[in-house]
Design goal:
Layout lengths: L5 H16 L7 H27 L4 H21 L11
Helix pairs in contact: 1-2, 2-3
Length: about 90
């Protein structure tokens, strides 16, 4: 399946927002699109950071950026799932 263009995505997001505001989302399509759109931005950051980390010879700075991107993506996952992340006392 082809990736939507920026305009297609923008139009779909606007329609999803309207659907949620009017509470017209019987199959949770709008909710799913909005949630996935929110979360995918964090996953794209993880992908970019991982690519930089691998291509920069696994440098410490890029490793730190990758770990931060992963942490933000996990936060987004728990936020959208309305769950609290477990802390292991390492931070």
């Amino acid at each position: 399946m082809a990736k939507p263009t920026e305009k297609e995505l923008d139009d779909a997001i606007k329609m999803a927002i309207q659907m949620r505001e009017k509470d017209i989302d019987p199959f949770f399509v709008a909710k799913t699109l909005l949630s996935h759109n929110y979360r995918i931005k964090y996953m794209e950051d993880v992908l970019k950071a991982a690519d930089r980390y691998l291509n920069m010879g696994m440098a410490e700075r890029e490793r730190t950026e990758l770990l931060r991107a992963i942490d933000k993506a996990k936060d987004a996952e728990f936020h959208t799932a309305q769950q609290e992340r477990e802390s292991f006392g390492l931070e």
